[in-house]
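Sequence in, structure out.
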Amino acid sequence: MNTLSYKTISANKETVHKEWVLIDAEDQILGRLASKTAKLLRGKMKTDFTAHVDCGDNVIVINAEKIKLTGKKLTDKEYLSHSGYPGGQKTRTPKELLAKKPTAVVEKAVKGMLPKNRLGSELFRNLHVYAGSEHPHQAQQPKAITLKSIR
């Protein structure tokens, strides 16, 4: 048996093939959309996945204001933030966030599913979320995919 032919593939920044992917968030459930998007950003479905390298694709999410939440999460779920000053804790519901900044709900959900380190910050920069159906990335020729096609 030739043991030299079995080599583990370890990707690096130069050998990674990154694509542009378009996801339509209209009538999609937030958690399912976020988990599939995080998987695309991380590159976990690629054969040359390497845990410490940015192997994922650039993901564009459109129609973020038309996202759905199941149950009573629209009014009962709370996002916490703190200004750093005493008494500076604020809570907001997804309903308030969708009214003020529709892209924030999707961004927070995806960011929570990425690694909490420098690689996670780098991966998050590959996510582009837009409230409407228009986006400025037509020159990259993104490939439109459905969530059901992602395993």
